[in-house]
Structure to design on (818 residues):
């Protein structure tokens, strides 16, 4: 019997070893992939001692706010489809490593108060936050392959590209700068900015709104704001500029509801809200698509934010 | 726990190692514990229900075995009644609840559909069928009642067969719990090979076919006739690959632990008649229906119908018709409470009765045309006709409702123009159907059919074992590699999980 057991073990190892070796190599490569989560983490850990302004939010902030134009050192920790849950999670996780932090800018998009990644096609991002920042949402399956390995975080197409070394870092993962801002040089054209694409974009964002998520998000946000207030850190809610081809298709009722929620929060906490979503000084040349600013727009907007909010905070604290 | 889920790939090796390390007398306990864990992942509340059901049937079994007369009869009836009641309750509660809701709504009575929400416990049908066959077999004195509650529970909850069968007979499996299973290289590797083949069928073939079939059946109003027909022809293969894939994984994992379970499929698409099809398709269920429903019904009717003929038709033909109609109605209704499932079952009853009633007519036609029964062309013709009849019936099985099935069938005749077919393909392109998927579908179907044809003469694993070492290992590596590379990113649930 012992002979048979050894024979079995040897054969199983022989069968599995090429796959184990291949998997280990892919896993190693997957861990090295420079995605936006990894890049932001690395850059943040390099700069954390000097960061005074932290920017959080979705792709609107990620592409629209460039901390290079701030009067004091800033870092953009926003990410594509980043929810308020993760904004809060990231900031609270690193708060103790931010000795110079003076203000937090939180991007408030149309869907922010009602959006949870689990309701979108980007629910896979939950596992990226879990791996890279150690933040796990309730309901995340900690025993599924995506939670246990980095390989399972990616699609089969990406794994194929890893195997055949076809990945181009910039092309695949965006042009993320050392300050966390994503550079988008793409000039607007009639396809990226149009009534049709703007309407589709607004409809997509409408589909992300799930009112049942609101109570949970509000609790998270309140806890987050309490901590920041307690530490005497200024908080600004900001809605980034969006083009009219997008904003005109947003539901007025939802916008009014957003305003009401923001007003309530601003009343209870020391939070100021700045709404640039309808700012007409931003022209089509400032956008890369219907709801995202390009590099030029980001510079314009970041300078605007600086003069309005950041510079006073920086000067006040440095005095 | 689902066989294709990641935890199962950890669960089985752990169970396997502990199983062979443990002394024989403790192994039933390990199986009971692991099976409970396997099911508890779905729902521990329903696991308690299963424990109750097992204890109840074990107690009834003992009573049936040790008593006689009226008490025995009462115990038997109450045992069967309880099992059927539980199955009917869980299977039809949702349907009943929505009907109550509609009526309450109609008479303006406040009743929320969510008042009591009950989801059918996964695998309850298969457990109840096992329990019923156990009680009937004891009643018929075909088997002895199992006195060891632990072994009985381990057998009932045995994880490879718990969720989707095979529906095992007590007399076949319980003795295996008492046998000493020594580690056998042949048996364990045989089990692993069978599992690999099962994963291949499920993850590569069934899930790839689903990529085409699912969007077409879901949006058939926008699809042209030729594509609907194509998908109707492909669906039986998808179901076969899905369910037989599951069965192979179940049989393989049981074999790894030294157990032999019943094979549910014997190359069903090589069946040359509907009767032959049902002797090859979901065998453990079809034989269950035969032994515990069809034959008792036939026996009952033969006792009631004393005359040699009714309406100038032999009584035995009537008996067959009535028994088969009831059996297949139950078969259809077990699959679902929609009219489409009833029609699906009745269609099979109709086909079977037709072939039974026209047996002599067919024989005389064949004689007149000088067609030999052994002729390969005639066999091919019969296989084709059987397949087409099965395919037609399975439209009712796959459709969301009876109306949906009728719309699908009428859809066969629409959209045959070139522009409509081009539009249809572009629509499918938007659903993610690309040339890679189409080629995988063609290759998958070819492999499935080819292996079935090959296995008709000699077992496929035997054939592989006879090949030189490098070919054999090449095949093993290739199968694992194809499973990894070609299986869709997200595996779909097994189709029969819902039943």
């Amino acid at each position: 019997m012992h002979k048979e057991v050894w024979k079995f073990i040897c054969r199983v190892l022989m069968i599995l070893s090429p796959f184990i070796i291949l998997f280990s190599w892919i896993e190693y490569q997957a861990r090295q992939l420079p995605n936006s989560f990894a890049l932001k983490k690395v850059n943040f850990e390099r700069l954390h001692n000097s960061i005074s302004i932290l920017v959080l939010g979705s792709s609107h902030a990620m592409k629209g706010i460039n901390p290079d134009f701030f009067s004091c050192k800033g870092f953009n920790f926003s990410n594509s489809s980043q929810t308020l849950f993760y904004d809060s999670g990231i900031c609270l996780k690193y708060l103790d490593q931010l000795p110079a932090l003076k203000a937090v800018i939180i991007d408030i998009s149309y869907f922010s108060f009602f959006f949870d990644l689990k309701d979108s096609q980007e629910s896979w991002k939950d596992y990226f936050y879990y791996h890279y920042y150690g933040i796990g949402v309730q309901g995340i399956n900690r025993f599924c392959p995506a939670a246990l390995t980095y390989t399972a975080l990616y699609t089969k197409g990406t794994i194929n590209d890893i195997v055949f070394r076809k990945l181009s870092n910039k092309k695949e993962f965006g042009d993320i700068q050392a300050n966390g801002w994503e550079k988008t040089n793409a000039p607007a054209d009639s396809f990226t900015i149009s009534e049709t694409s703007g309407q589709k974009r607004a409809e997509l964002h409408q589909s992300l709104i799930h009112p049942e998520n609101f109570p949970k998000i509000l609790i998270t946000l309140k806890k987050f704001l309490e901590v920041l207030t307690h530490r005497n850190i200024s908080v600004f809610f900001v809605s980034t500029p969006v083009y009219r081809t997008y904003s005109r298709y947003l539901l007025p009722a939802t916008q009014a509801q957003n305003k009401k929620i923001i007003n309530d929060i601003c009343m209870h906490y020391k939070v100021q809200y700045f709404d640039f979503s309808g700012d007409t000084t931003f022209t089509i040349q400032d956008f890369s698509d219907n709801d995202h600013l390009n590099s030029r727009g980001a510079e314009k907007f970041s300078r605007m934010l600086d003069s309005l909010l950041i510079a006073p905070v920086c000067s006040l604290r440095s005095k | 726990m689902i066989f294709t889920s990641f935890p199962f790939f950890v669960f089985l090796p752990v169970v396997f190692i502990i199983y062979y390390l443990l002394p024989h007398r403790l192994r039933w306990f390990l199986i009971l514990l692991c099976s409970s864990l396997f099911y508890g992942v779905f729902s521990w509340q329903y696991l308690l229900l299963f424990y109750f059901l097992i204890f109840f049937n074990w107690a009834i079994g003992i009573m049936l075995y040790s008593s006689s007369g009226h008490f025995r009869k009462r115990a038997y009836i109450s045992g069967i009644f309880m099992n059927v009641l539980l199955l009917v309750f869980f299977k039809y509660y949702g349907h009943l609840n929505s009907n109550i809701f509609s009526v309450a709504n109609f008479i303006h009575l406040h009743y929320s559909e969510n008042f009591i929400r009950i989801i059918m416990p996964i695998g309850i049908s298969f457990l109840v069928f096992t329990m019923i066959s156990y009680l009937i077999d004891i009643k018929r004195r075909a088997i002895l009642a199992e006195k060891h509650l632990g072994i009985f529970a381990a057998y009932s909850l045995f994880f490879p067969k718990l969720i989707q069968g095979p529906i095992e007979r007590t007399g076949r499996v319980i003795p295996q719990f008492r046998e000493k299973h020594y580690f056998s290289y042949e048996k364990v590797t045989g089990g692993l090979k069978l599992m690999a083949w099962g994963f291949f069928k499920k993850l590569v073939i069934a899930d790839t076919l689903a990529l085409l079939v699912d969007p077409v059946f879901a949006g058939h109003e926008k699809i042209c006739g030729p594509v609907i027909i194509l998908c109707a022809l492909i669906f039986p293969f998808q179901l076969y690959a899905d369910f037989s894939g599951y069965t192979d994984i179940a049989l393989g994992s049981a074999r790894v632990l030294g157990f032999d379970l019943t094979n549910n499929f014997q190359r069903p698409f090589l069946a040359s008649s509907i009767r032959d099809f049902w002797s090859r398709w979901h065998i453990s269920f079809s034989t269950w229906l035969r032994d515990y429903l069809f034959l008792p019904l036939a026996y009952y009717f033969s006792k009631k119908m004393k005359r040699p003929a009714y309406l100038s038709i032999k009584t035995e033909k009537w008996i067959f018709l009535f028994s088969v109609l009831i059996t297949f109605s139950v078969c259809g209704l077990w699959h679902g409470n929609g009219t489409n499932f009833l029609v699906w079952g009745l269609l099979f009853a109709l086909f079977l009765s037709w072939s039974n009633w026209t047996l002599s007519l067919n024989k005389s036609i064949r004689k007149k045309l000088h067609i030999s029964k052994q002729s390969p062309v005639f066999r091919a013709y019969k296989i084709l006709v059987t397949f087409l009849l099965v395919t037609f019936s399975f439209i009712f099985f796959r459709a969301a409702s009876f109306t949906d099935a009728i719309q699908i069938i009428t859809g066969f005749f629409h959209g045959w123009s070139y522009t409509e077919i081009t539009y249809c393909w572009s629509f499918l392109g938007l659903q993610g159907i690309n040339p890679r998927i189409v080629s995988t579908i063609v290759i998958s179907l070819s492999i499935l059919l080819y292996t079935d044809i090959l296995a008709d003469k000699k077992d496929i694993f035997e054939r592989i074992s006879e090949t030189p070492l490098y070919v054999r290992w090449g095949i093993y590596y290739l199968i694992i590699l194809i499973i990894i590379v070609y299986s869709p990113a997200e595996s779909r649930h097994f189709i029969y999980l819902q039943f």
Remarks:
- Residues 270-398 of chain B form one domain.
- The first strand of chain B starts at residue 309 and ends at 310.
- Chain B has a mean pLDDT of 89.
